[in-house]
Design a protein that fits this description.
Layout: H1 10-15, E1 21-26, H2 31-47, E2 52-57, H3 62-67, E3 75-80, E4 83-89, H4 99-112
Parallel strand pairs: 1-2
Antiparallel strand pairs: 1-3, 3-4
Length: 114
């Protein structure tokens, strides 16, 4: 998982892999963002051959948050072939705290963009 300390630019992340990229926009003060960390680790473990994951601090990179219409935190934007193909805003975090709920949402976005 690419985390803030390793982040240089979204364009670099998108260019560095042929796999789809899931970006989680978060803020350090956001409790639900921290709750999703465990889920993301499980998603990465189970889907490592299907996608890459990166976390971007929306406060440190407000231009990216604005460009991808991030209105709630955490928010996820899924990119395929360098283009955004779907977004998941976690308005009700408890619905996505389970990897069993989150992975099907991702798979649905991936298959609809094929």
């Amino acid at each position: 998982m690419v985390i803030e300390e390793q982040f240089t630019s979204l364009e670099t992340l998108l260019s560095d892999s042929d796999l789809p990229l899931l970006v989680m926009f978060y803020a350090p003060w956001c409790g639900p963002s921290h709750l999703m960390d465990t889920v993301l680790e499980q998603v990465e473990s189970r889907m490592s051959q299907e996608l890459r994951i990166a976390k971007i601090n929306s406060e440190a990179h407000p231009d990216l948050a604005t460009r991808y219409h991030v209105h709630a935190l955490p928010s996820f934007v899924l990119f395929k072939q360098k283009q955004p193909i779907g977004q998941i805003e976690v308005e009700q975090t408890e619905h996505l705290l389970s990897v069993e709920r989150f992975i099907p949402r991702l798979q649905g976005l991936l298959s609809s963009a094929s």
